[in-house]
Amino acid sequence: MESIIHAQGICKNYGKKIALDKVDLKIPAGRIVGLIGPNGAGKTTLLKGILGLSSVDGNLQVLGLNPFTDRVKLLEDVSFIADTAILPRWIKVSEALDYVEGVHPKFSREKAMAFLAKTNITLNDKVKNLSKGMATQLHLALIMAIDSKLLVLDEPTLGLDIIYRKQFYESLLNDYYDAQKTIVITTHQVEEIEGILTDLVFINNGKIILEMAMEDLPNVFAELQVDANNKEAALTLNPIHIRTILGGFSMIYENANIASLQALGKTTTPSVADLFVAKMQPATTSGRGV
Amino acid sequence: MNSKVLTTQFKREFWENKISFLVTPALVSALILLVIICASLFSGSLLKDGSFHFTYNSADESVQSTTSPENGPKLKINDSSQTVAGAPFKKIDAVTSVMSEPGAFDSMVMGSMYVNCAFLYLIFSIVMASYSLRCLFDDRKNKDILFWRSMPLSETTNVLVKLAMVVLAAPIIMLALNMLITVLSILIGFVFFGYIGVKMSFLLASIVHGKSLYIPFQIFYELVISLLVSLPVIGFAFFVSALSKKAPFLMFASPALLALADLSLRKFFGLNIGFIDLLSVYFGVIVQMKSAFILQESFSFDHAMILPFISCLAVGGLFIAAAIWLRNNRYEI
Lengths: 290, 333
What we know:
The complex is a heterodimer of chains A (about 290) and B (about 325). Chain A is an alpha/beta fold and about 290 residues long. Chain A folds into 2 domains: about 5-205, P-loop containing nucleotide triphosphate hydrolases (Rossmann fold), CATH 3.40.50.300; about 215-285. Chain A is about 30% helix and about 30% strand. Chain A is built from 11 helices and 13 strands. Chain A has helices spanning about 45-50, 70-75, 95-105, 110-115, 130-145, 160-175, 190-195, 215-220, 230-235, 260, 270-280; strands at about 5-15, 15-30, 30-35, 55-60, 80, 150-155, 180-185, 200-205, 205-215, 220-225, 240-245, 250-255, 265-270. In chain A, the strands form 3 sheets. Chain A has a 6-stranded mixed β-sheet, with helices on both faces. In chain A, helix 4 (about 110-115) packs antiparallel against helix 5 and helix 5 packs parallel to helix 6 (about 160-175). Chain A is globular and about 65 Å long. Chain B is of the alpha+beta class. Chain B has one domain (about 1-50, about 100-333). Helices cover about 70% and strands about 5% of the residues of chain B. In chain B, strands 2-1-3-4 form a 4-stranded mixed β-sheet. In chain B, helix 2 (about 20-50) packs parallel to helix 7, helix 4 packs antiparallel against helix 7 (about 155-195) and helix 7 runs antiparallel to helix 9. Chain B is globular and about 70 Å long. The two termini of chain B are about 30 Å apart. The interface of A and B includes residues 92, 98, 104 and 105 of A.
């Protein structure tokens, strides 16, 4: 399958701080990828590199183009909403539509208007008079009306209440996504996007520590709930993470024998949030001292 | 780069800066127009009570009207061939005689336009200085730069359009407003003087053979030239606007500190870092081309100006190029 994003050994340093450390990444077309990592993990640096907002060392190609040198050409097929990419406060809704229509060859005013018709936003509103949720709806309407091949969302729902967050992802799925489009999302509210992701990428300290299709998760990771009686037996199977829960322990395993786990307790596929914590806290991987 | 993108980019600048670039200058011109209308009505009433004093000087083509109630209506034409000072005329005859002078009406119209132009110079000086210093700073400070950068438009285009707002759009707006004031002054003059009996043919001839319809274009040309000579300053303002993280104005004022340091080093240590010499050279260029900067002085380009002019463009261009580089590589605050 054709790769929309192809990164090979990309690095980025800010002074002595290593933001990206030989990152390899391949994202095929038609996927919804969750790029997840703690603060300072390198998510935004990676996205900036992908969007051509900053240069990176190594081989990075997005839609077959060098994002930094071919940024303008690339942005005809790539859209993004960044947490800080707020709409200018002085602009009117009609002006924002006129502007994007004027500069973007793949913008459909009809699509944007159709999306705005489902909201309380009027053409004469100024962004400064809209609530944060409404401004995000407007931004999403502008971006979703662009027939791009790749959409990058960097903490797009930051600061929104749960209703707007739900609406945001519903609109994304219902009104934008199709098999030809690729979406890369970073967010700290992992549980909200878990249901829509097709792929998962974990990043920490500038390195990709997990890159996997969601459908492969059950084959690789398992969560076992055991009571105190089976704790020692479960620990011998080398969980990558262990935590205390009501009435026992929850352990996460990577590439473990499922039959062996099922003999000790209830097994499930770990949630993305639990898996994230498991992969990000290597100090507890052995489970010793718990 | 197609024209639709460029047009949209200019529209964006006008949307963002409509108060500075459109509303304020238009209001100033509207006020000037109001003053012209009021002056016409007021002088009309003075004509009725006979306290109107009217002077046309053909040497410098100036028309002055003053009130001198104690002396009654007076006509004064200063001309090498004709001097009629203090001669008593009937009030309407006095005005009619003055307006029959070939350049009189045209000079009155130009006077109105020059007043408008002087105010617009003042307004635009403030607007352009402020715009140049904040146009590449505000979107970084307000954090909407990433929205603009999510569009397929290069920073080169973005910065050059902003530069064109200063060196081209502002002069065009000034030209439009000056022309508007000129045309409306002519129309008001036709109505006013026609009403009191001045022959329309005199007025038309005065305008057709005069300079009032041409002068706004001359001012436009001089303004563009003066802005291009000022490109090192404008370019530096753009550079500071793209570089500054807190207060662009303070950084913009830094050359004054450098000049002071240069002066101190010369005085106390005998060291010359050459900054004041550089400023002196630039000041010399401005003096050389001063007629482009001064209203009512006619500027014409000569060969001696070519090299300094190109040097100004080159220095300004370097600052603009640096601003574009900063926008591409160091845009975050």
